[in-house]
């Protein structure tokens, strides 16, 4: 004798089958996860000199009658720092960090950074990375955005962490480690 199902039981069974079929069809039509763009992390060192004939950063404008310093609101600096592979100033230079620093907070806590890393080494020659954002001067690690790039870094986006690893007050010399993490297409 074959078992028989009552009408309510058939309805529940058919409903379950329809739900299962709907799930299978939905998953079959769902988009597969897209691969992440290439991610690269690079570490460089900015060799920053603020005094003397070899200065690589210098104030060019500010509020009349005030000192033009990194913590004085309205001070504008131009930068042309060598970018090296290690902390040593004599290590291989891979490019230059060129741009502007603007003391943009009344209390001197923040500097607005607009900086281009212009590569001149064999691997990335002619390419640039564009950095922009607020550098919070009182923090050990300062983060700014990588907003674009050219050449091998075309369409790059990401972030850069800045850390002062050496500061010599008498010579106004700084070495800043810059760890750049980017994604490219």
From TrEMBL:
<dbReference type="GO" id="GO:0048046">
    <property type="term" value="C:apoplast"/>
</dbReference>
<keyword id="KW-0964">Secreted</keyword>
<dbReference type="Pfam" id="PF03018">
    <property type="entry name" value="Dirigent"/>
</dbReference>
<protein>
    <recommendedName>
        <fullName>Dirigent protein</fullName>
    </recommendedName>
</protein>
<comment type="function">
    <text>Dirigent proteins impart stereoselectivity on the phenoxy radical-coupling reaction, yielding optically active lignans from two molecules of coniferyl alcohol in the biosynthesis of lignans, flavonolignans, and alkaloids and thus plays a central role in plant secondary metabolism.</text>
</comment>
<comment type="subunit">
    <text>Homodimer.</text>
</comment>
<keyword id="KW-1133">Transmembrane helix</keyword>
<dbReference type="InterPro" id="IPR004265">
    <property type="entry name" value="Dirigent"/>
</dbReference>
<comment type="similarity">
    <text>Belongs to the plant dirigent protein family.</text>
</comment>
<keyword id="KW-0472">Membrane</keyword>
<keyword id="KW-0812">Transmembrane</keyword>
<feature type="transmembrane region" description="Helical">
    <location>
        <begin position="12"/>
        <end position="29"/>
    </location>
</feature>
<keyword id="KW-0052">Apoplast</keyword>
<dbReference type="InterPro" id="IPR044859">
    <property type="entry name" value="Allene_oxi_cyc_Dirigent"/>
</dbReference>
<dbReference type="GO" id="GO:0009699">
    <property type="term" value="P:phenylpropanoid biosynthetic process"/>
</dbReference>
């Amino acid at each position: 004798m074959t078992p028989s199902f009552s009408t309510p039981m058939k309805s529940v069974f058919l409903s379950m089958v329809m739900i299962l079929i709907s799930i299978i069809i939905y998953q079959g039509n769902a988009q597969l996860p897209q691969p992440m763009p290439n991610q690269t992390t690079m570490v460089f060192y900015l060799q920053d000199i603020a005094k003397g004939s070899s200065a690589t950063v210098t104030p060019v404008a500010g509020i009349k009658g005030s000192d033009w310093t990194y913590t004085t609101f309205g001070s504008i600096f131009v930068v042309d720092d060598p970018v090296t592979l290690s902390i040593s100033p004599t290590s291989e230079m891979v490019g230059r960090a060129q741009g502007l620093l603007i003391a943009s907070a009344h209390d001197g806590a923040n500097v607005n950074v607009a900086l281009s890393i212009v590569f001149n080494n064999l691997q990335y020659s002619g390419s640039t990375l564009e950095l922009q954002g607020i550098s919070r001067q009182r923090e050990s690690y300062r983060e700014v955005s990588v907003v674009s790039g050219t050449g091998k870094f075309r369409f790059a986006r990401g972030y850069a962490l800045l850390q002062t690893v050496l500061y010599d007050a008498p010579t106004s010399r700084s070495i800043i480690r810059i760890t750049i993490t980017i994604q490219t297409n």
